[in-house]
Amino acid sequence: MTQIDFYQIGPAGLDAALVTLVKKTCAVGKKALILCPQPAASAVDSMLWSFEAESWLAHGLDEAPGAEYAQIWISSDMAANPIDAEFVFLLHGSAPQSWDRFSRCFCLFDGRSEAQLQQAREQWKQWKALEDAQLAYYAQNAEGGWDKKA
Fold first, then answer.
1. For the chain, which ranges sit under pLDDT 50?
2. Contact criterion met (CB below 8 Å) for 78 and 33
3. Which residue, of 22, 102, 113, 150, has the greatest Cβ tally within 10 A?
4. Whole-angstrom Cα distance, residue 89 to residue 92?
5. Within 10 A of 116 (CB to CB), how many other CB atoms are there?
6. Do the beta carbons of residue 51 and residue 91 sit within 8 Å?
7. Quick one: which H or E segment has residue 8?
8. Are 90 and 99 in contact (CB under 8 A)?
């Protein structure tokens, strides 16, 4: 079964939310695959190297070498999973070609963007019909935490 969680990003912004969730993923010993189109994938790549001045999150992007050593990978190919990750992060309306490999999905979208809200609603409707999936919806609150809405 795949747990698909929708995260409506608020004032804290996508970068902070993504970093927090990816760090938690690694802390529990899981690998994180981040799927998003270019040029967003390159922007996420740069952000993960520099988000916090005192640390960085080692990762790879698309066809770069080192997938066999990585806990975090960014791909613009929706069929790719070079690190055999169980957790997938979907940005900018991305969707994996197959759900078979993933036990958990984080669908992150900007709640301040009407286009992204609409896209998330459409994905919710589509993925709710998946035979072996359970969906949940969280909205970011003013303190940066998450309130479960559905």
1. none
2. no
3. 22
4. 10
5. 19
6. no
7. strand 2-9
8. no
Look at residue 50 in the predicted model and tell me its pLDDT.
85
In the three-class reduction of DSSP (H, G, I as helix; E, B as strand; rest coil), residue 43 is classed as helix
List the one residue out of 28, 21, 19 whose CA is nearest residue 6. Answer: 21
Give CA 55 to chain center in angstroms. 20
Burial class (CB in 10 A: 0-12, 13-18, 19+), 126: exposed
pTM of this structure? 0.94
* pLDDT at position 42: 95
Distance CA 21, CA 18 (A): 5
Token readout for 74 is 């960014």
Q: What is the CATH number of the domain that holds 140?
A: 3.40.50.10110
pLDDT for position 133 = 94
Domains identified in the chain, total number: 1
Neighbours of 1 (CB within 10 A): 11
Domain range for 75 = 2-148
